[in-house]
Structure formats: structure tokens, C-alpha cells
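Residues pack. One example:


***
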Amino acid sequence: MNYAKALAYLDQHVSYDTTGRIESPSLDNIQRMMTTMGEPQLAAPAIHVTGTNGKGSTVQMITRLLMAHGLTVGTYTSPHLHRVNERIARSGEPIDDESFAEQIAAIAELEGLTGVRPSYFEACTAAAFRWFADVAVDVVVAEVGLLGRWDATNVLDAQVAVVTNIGMDHNEFAGPTLADIAREKAGIIKPGSAAVIGETSESLVDILAEPAASTRLCRDIDFAVEGNELAIGGRLVDLRTPTSIYPDMFLPLHGAHQGDNAAAALTAVETFFAAPLAADLVAEGFAAVEMPGRFEVVGHQPLVIVDGAHNPAGGDTCAQVFFDDFAPEGRRILVVGTLRDPAEMLAALRAEEFDAVIAATAPSPRGVDARAVGAAAVAVGAEEVLVVDTISDACRMALDEADASDAVLVAGSLYVAGEARVALAKLLP
């Protein structure tokens, strides 16, 4: 099997359910695959991360902190911006095409042997764990794809389980309350896990305390952000963990919320090592973090920012950073596409505060039609609303409209961010 055939195999296994709840959720398929392959997910210790928002950033911070300590790290994330290889990385480098094809070929062969037809995500997850075992990584850092309890990554028996926060998302699969969401995310906490809890709502923390764990560390009690200031190119934070205080740590990421992610990541790695970390290695790890498509500044004059916010909580954070931290003085132009209720996303992104909104269809089978996105923008109070077919066309229109003093924000989903990055790379000098 070559790389093109591997991609075709995955495309044949796409099974995202948009019709409602999964009636009988189960890990049977992925567990049967793991058992047949000799339990590759148990070949290395693991840190497992879930949460409504911030888990991608937290995973990357954990990865870089572990790498700064000389470990070879297998990182599994989703979704991807441009190529599926991005989901599976060894010490920050995505799996190469040949190795990816080899792993997917093994999964395809396994399907024939076991009769288990994996979903796209299950196939990628199985391929990741198999590759990590093959290349003998020292530790696995895995991001939950959907909620937690029934996510394919939950075949892991992680030494550290991280819950960044609890918000309303994926309500077609869980809910209708935050308590329901919390119970699903709590499913990654195992009896042998140290649980790092980033959520601060007392009622939700109580739910996250229900599963047995080896220890439980909670934000603002056991770890916290003691200082968080805007800096050139990111944030300067003072972090407190159960063992130490780490002052003046630079994060090359935008938004005060990244301080919260950093505190959880640092606590997770300290807990993994069961020891304080050297401050210089912490600084080295944080400085190396890169998050393409997450409030990423891709252009100046005009200022152009791409953010993969995909739910109202993420949209609210995105808008707060855009208006408060960057405070653009010229015209403000929003390019937006979404996979969910556009009214919720447009309200969260504060579309009415932009001078112009350019609506487009997100590049996904689940993308909401551009006309519906535009109508939602009008409904929330945006005065100038333009509708085009694609994100690429919307980016071109935004740059045509913008002067050097203006600011363009592209947001709505990681699929939107991925297409925008490609288009803007061609359009910007």
C-alpha cells in the first residue's frame, strides 16, 4: 500500500455521525484491534488529555517540556490542518508518508483478519499506537478526539490524565448539561492515573472527582497562574505547581488563556516525573511550542490572524484576544465559516463589532452553507455582510478590502484555518 492508497482507505472509513447520539458507544472495536496487535498502546507510559478547549495547546506544551528533558515523545492529535500525517508525530516531526502508508496497510490487513471495520479515527489511532511501539518512543502524549470515555484513545492506561476545562460542545453525543459533558470527560481518569483538573466550577470538579485516581491536582488549589502579562509575541507568565514556582516563563502563544494551559501542562509533566523541573528546561520547552492555526499571526499591514476556534467558548476567547490584546485601530474584517450553529459562533466571535463580515462555507462535508452563515451574521447585528462560496475566496476578498492599518481575522473551525493558511500563503507578500 502506498500513501495515496492509505488515504483512500481512510476516506472509505469516514463515519462521523451527524444524526444524533451513539446509542451503544463502545471501545470494543479499538480494543480488539489493540489486543490482536499485542497491546501497542501499553508499550510506553502515557499522558492523556481531554477538555472542551485548550487540549491541543496543552498537548503541544507537554510534548515540548518532555522533549526538553531528553525524551523521545510520540504525540497523537486531531484533527489536522493540512495533512493527516500531522496527527502522528515523533518528537515534533510528523510521520513520513512511507511509514504512514505502512501503518495503515497493517490496519487494513488487521481488518481482514478480525472482521473489525474501524472508523477513520479508530484507524488513525491504531496506526499511531502501533507506530509509537515500532519506533520505541519513551512516552506517548495523546489528545482525545471526542469527549473521553468512549473515544478510541481511551484504550490507553495513562499515568497522567488531564482535563483542561468543561464547556458545551459535541452535544449531539453528550449532554444536555455540563455535568453530562464532565462525566464523559472523566472517563479517561483510571485508578492508576494522576488526574490534573483544569476546570474550576465546584460542581463539575466534584464530578471529575468521582473516578478513582492515584492522586488529584486541581487548578487554583494545587497549581495556578500567579502572573500573566502581555508580551511581544506571546505571554509572560508566573506558574505555581504543587512543588515549585516558575516565574517569568515566556509562552510564544497569544491569549491569557494560554497561561492556564501552561499551568496544567507543567503540572502534568511534573507529576509524570514525580519531581520538580529545572527552570531552564521549562523555559526551553515552552519557548519551542508552535501552534499553527491557533490565533496565528500570518501577516502584518494589514494584520492577518488565523484561529481554529470551533465552538462558542473558543470563539469567545478568540474575540477577546483579538479585541483586547491586539485592539486593532483600523477596519476590522471577519472571515468566517463553521461546522455548527452559525448563530452561536457569530455571537461568540462578536461579529457585530466587526466593520465587515465575509461568510463562506467551511471546507468540510459538515460545513454550514455560506448563505446561512451570512444570515446569522446579519441576525446578530453585523452591518456589512458579504457572502462567497469558499474560504479562499473570502480571504482574497478580505485582503482586497483591507488597508495597511486594518485587521483581518479568519475563524470558525480548524478546517477553515487550514484552507485559510494555504490561501493566505499565496496572497500575502
